[in-house]
Structure formats: structure tokens, C-alpha cells
TrEMBL record:
CDD domains: ABCF_EF-3. Residues 215-280 form a coiled coil. PANTHER family: ATP-BINDING CASSETTE SUB-FAMILY F MEMBER 1 (PTHR19211:SF14), ATP-BINDING TRANSPORT PROTEIN-RELATED (PTHR19211). This is ABC transporter domain-containing protein. Keywords: ATP-binding, Coiled coil, Nucleotide-binding, Repeat. InterPro entries: AAA+_ATPase (IPR003593), ABC_transporter-like_ATP-bd (IPR003439), ABC_transporter-like_CS (IPR017871), ABCF (IPR050611), P-loop_NTPase (IPR027417). The keyword Nucleotide-binding applies. Residues 8-224, 297-482 form the ABC transporter domain. Pfam families: ABC_tran (PF00005). GO terms for molecular function: ATP binding; ATP hydrolysis activity. The keyword Repeat applies. It comes from Candidatus Sungbacteria bacterium RIFCSPHIGHO2_01_FULL_47_32.
Length: 483
């Protein structure tokens, strides 16, 4: 195949019509050989579904998907599936191929070098940190050397060095690539076009240009649509007022009144539906557990990983109300392990005061029961179930309609994150333990989440590799596990 040749074409593709809310309606777009594109859209719009349709993992309800002959594809997923967590590194990579690959170890070593990760082949996947698992997921796609590389949130959990390494790789990548990501700087470094999936029209809009240019273009269109709607609303109101005025006069004036109402109806049809993709979660507050005084969390020692060995270090950190602690360090230094030990009360050197409710946000969402519905997941953290409060909290995070009765396991990763945040609001914790709370999130949500954390009056322990998010939060203490 020569560069620029069409390798994928969607022709009036629809999907999801067996469900209440279909995801795609007569979608059309093309991908050319050598293209590097971003796939944008709101959490739950159907971006990962597009990937599954491209690979043939699922079939469209209607329409045609044209794939170039002999085109190979590989997907770097967002998270390691639960059934693969017990795999060794070798077993994990063996599962990437339909047929047995003999002498796979050299291939594994080569691809791990590309993602800048050292790993023994007998080591279990579950023993790796979130950032290290992100590198393994990326490597699982690269080892297949596909014609079309599909990356689903590849920077989630990656530290600065990992993102820089991946960016450099993609800039020099000679084949085709489509990336789902909310990391604007990362995307702008290598993408040359955007596929924009609208959750309202359920169609793809295809744009040329870098990520920032496309976002600016979309924002300008939305502003123009808002101005048009405002002008039409004013004119509609005038026609209705005129119609009421003439209707009272009787006779021929009633015909004029009817014409005014017809004009108002015609103007209503001209109004543009504002894109639901561009809805941001509402500003929210995480209530603080009342009646807590004194120290909420005291850390006197902790364990970290240095040169693949666990070391114990002393510390002197006490968190009271309104105190915020940031844990720092590259992938694999033990940040997630420390957070988990604090949240579960298994750390000898980190003690949470008795009676303090802990709001725990895990990067892999394993604190959620995937068999629960959203409603069940929210109601189980409330001291007293008040239906109105539950639904109000859910609506703040764009969880409305049938979504509240959907199983957690059927949500997108971004929607799972929104459920996890809604749980914190309803739980009213005294201590927040947050592990990468902006992973999978639409970039418009990030300032709102930062604002809520700044207003939170309890104690907070945070891990995040997103600088623009951390910079928005007042941090009182930093614990760097690398130092």
C-alpha cells in the first residue's frame, strides 16, 4: 500500500440500535495510509466502539466498513482486563497473537525497550504499577507491528518521561495511527487531523489540522450557534407576543395571529441543538465529614521501590482539615501501593484516625462493583438513601436517564470516573485518597474537578501525572518517593 491510499472507509455505519440509546447513526469517514489522527468525543460517546468496529471485534447494525486487503490492526487498550491480571509478562504478550509465536522472548525485550520498561518475563501483570501497566498495554499493540495502530488513552498513568518517550515514538512512526486521548499537548505534538464524534448527531465530523486548531474551530462554531439561538429566541418571543395581541382583537386579526404563531414555530425549527459533547460536568462540592478535629492522617514511615527493591523510609507528615499532600515519583516507585495501604488501613506507618470516612478513588476503578448498576453503586455509599440527593449528584456528573440503571461494567472508562466522583459527593468523607482522578476525563472537566478539590475542607492525598491539573490545586506538602 502506498502512502495516502485509503485503508479504512465507513459508509453510513450505524451501531447500537438494539439499545435505548444508539451510539452511531450513518457515520461516514475515511482513514488514509500514513495518517495520524485524533478521535475526539464526550465520555461515553462511542469512541472505543469505533475502534472495535475497525478491528472487526463487533459488527455494525447497518452500513458498510471497507478495510484495505490484508490490513493489520492492533489496539492499545485503556486498562488491563481483569482476567489478564494473573498472567505473566510472557503469557500477556503471547495472547496478542492468534497463533503461537516461537522464541517470543527477544520480541518482548525489543518492544519493552521501545516503551522504556524493564520487566522480567515471569513477573505477574498485577504486580506492576498503573503507569507500568500502561506501558505494557502500549507494548502489546506495538509487538504486533500493525499497519494501523489504535491507541485508547495511551498516556493515562504515564509519568512525564513515559509521555515524552511515547510522543517521540509516534512522531517518528511511519504507519497509520488513531489516538483517543484528552491530553492536548501530547495530541498536538503529532496529530494532523481530528475525527470528532458527536454524541448528539451520533456522526463523525472530519477535520484537517492540529488538535488545538480543531478545538478552536469547534468552540467558534458553538459560540456562533449560541448567538444564533439567542437571536431566534428573541424573535420567537416577539412573534408570540404579537400573536396574543392580535388574537384578542378578533375578526381578521385572528388570521394574523395564526400567521404569527406559524412564524414562531418555523423559527423554533431553525434553532440549533447545542452539542451535548461540549457539556461540562456542573460545579460540585464534596461535603466534609462533620465533627472531625485534630490529626486525620499521620505518616511516620512508608515503603518505596528503588532499583526494583522495596525500601522503607521515615517521614513526619500530619494532615489536618484543609491539608493537601501530593505524592510524586516516576512510574513504579510505589505511589499506588502507598495510597491503597492508606485507604485500606494496611500500612503500619500511615495511620488514619479512627472514625474517619475515607473516600478512595482508584485509577483502575476496582473499588467499584462492575455488576452493580450506577444507582446501586451510588446508593451504597450513602448513610441514608435520599433519592432526590442521589439523582441530583448523578446529574451533576452527566449521569441522567437510562444511564443510572446501566451496569458499571458496561460504562466507558470516563463514565466510570464520573460515577466514582459522584460517590465521593454522596459519601461525605473526612479523607480523600485520589489516584489519578483525571484519567479518562474530558479535558473540560479537569478545571471543575480541581475547583472542587480546592474547596474540599477535609484532608487530601493525591497522585496525578497531569501538571496542568496539579497546578490548579493548592498543595501543602509533597512526598517524592524517588528521593
Amino acid at each position: 500500500m502506498s502512502r495516502g491510499e485509503l485503508i479504512v472507509r465507513f459508509e453510513k455505519v450505524s451501531f447500537g440500535y438494539r439499545h435505548t440509546n444508539p451510539l452511531l447513526t450513518e457515520v461516514d469517514f475515511t482513514i488514509r495510509r500514513g495518517a495520524k489522527l485524533t478521535l475526539m468525543g464526550q465520555n461515553g460517546a462511542g469512541k472505543s466502539t469505533i475502534f472495535q468496529l475497525v478491528t472487526g471485534a463487533i459488527k455494525p447494525d447497518s452500513g458498510l466498513i471497507h478495510i484495505a486487503p490484508d490490513l493489520t490492526t492492533a489496539v492499545s487498550r485503556q486498562v488491563v482486563s481483569r482476567d489478564q491480571r494473573e498472567f505473566t509478562v510472557r503469557e500477556f504478550f503471547e495472547k496478542c497473537f492468534e497463533n503461537k509465536v516461537y522464541d517470543i522472548d527477544p520480541k518482548i525485550n525489543a518492544v519493552l525497550k521501545v516503551v522504556n520498561l524493564k520487566a522480567e518475563h515471569e513477573r505477574k501483570i498485577k504486580s506492576f504499577s498503573g503507569g507500568q501497566q500502561a506501558r505494557l498495554l502500549l507494548a502489546s499493540a506495538l509487538i504486533q507491528d500493525p499497519d494501523l495502530l489504535l491507541l485508547d488513552e495511551p498516556t493515562n498513568n504515564l509519568d512525564k518521561a513515559g509521555i515524552a518517550h511515547l510522543t517521540d515514538f509516534l512522531i517518528n512512526y511511519k504507519k497509520s495511527c488513531i489516538v483517543i486521548s484528552h491530553d492536548a499537548d501530547f495530541l498536538n505534538a503529532f496529530t494532523e487531523g481530528v475525527l470528532y464524534l458527536s454524541v448528539y448527531t451520533k456522526k463523525i465530523e472530519q477535520y484537517a489540522g492540529n488538535y488545538f486548531n480543531v478545538v478552536a474551530d469547534i468552540s467558534a462554531r458553538i459560540e456562533k450557534e449560541n448567538r444564533k439561538n439567542a437571536m431566534l429566541a428573541k424573535e420567537i418571543q416577539q412573534k408570540k407576543e404579537q400573536a396574543n395581541k392580535f388574537a384578542f382583537k378578533g375578526g381578521q386579526m385572528r388570521l394574523v395571529a395564526k400567521r404569527m404563531r406559524d412564524l414562531a414555530a418555523e423559527l423554533e425549527e431553525e434553532k440549533v441543538d447545542i452539542r451535548k459533547e461540549d457539556k461540562t460536568i456542573r460545579h460540585f462540592t464534596i461535603p466534609f465529614q462533620a465533627d472531625l478535629v485534630g490529626v486525620i492522617l499521620r505518616i511516620t514511615s512508608y515503603t518505596a521501590v528503588r532499583n526494583h527493591k522495596t525500601v522503607t523510609r521515615e517521614a513526619d507528615i500530619s494532615l489536618h482539615k484543609n491539608n493537601r499532600l501530593l505524592l510524586m515519583g516516576p512510574n513504579g516507585t510505589g505511589k499506588t501501593t502507598l495510597l491503597e495501604s492508606i485507604a485500606l488501613g494496611t500500612s503500619k506507618g500511615a495511620v488514619v484516625t479512627s472514625g474517619v470516612r475515607i473516600g478512595y478513588y482508584r485509577q483502575d476503578f476496582s473499588m467499584l462493583n462492575f455488576e452493580d448498576t450506577v444507582y446501586d453503586s451510588l446508593s451504597c455509599v450513602m448513610e441514608k438513601l435520599i433519592e432526590e440527593d442521589l439523582r441530583a449528584a448523578a446529574a451533576n456528573f452527566l449521569i441522567t436517564g437510562d444511564l443510572i440503571r446501566t451496569k458499571i461494567g458496561n460504562l466507558s472508562e470516563g463514565q466510570k470516573g464520573l460515577v466514582a466522583l459522584a460517590r465521593l459527593v454522596l459519601q461525605k468523607p473526612g479523607l480523600l485518597v485520589l489516584d489519578e482522578p483525571t484519567n479518562h476525563m474530558n479535558f473540560r472537566h479537569i478545571p471543575v474537578i480541581a475547583e472542587a478539590l480546592n474547596k474540599y475542607q477535609g484532608a487530601l492525598v493525591l497522585v496525578s501525572h497531569v501538571p496542568e491539573f496539579v497546578q490548579k490545586i493548592r498543595i501543602d506538602e509533597v512526598l517524592d518517593l524517588e528521593k
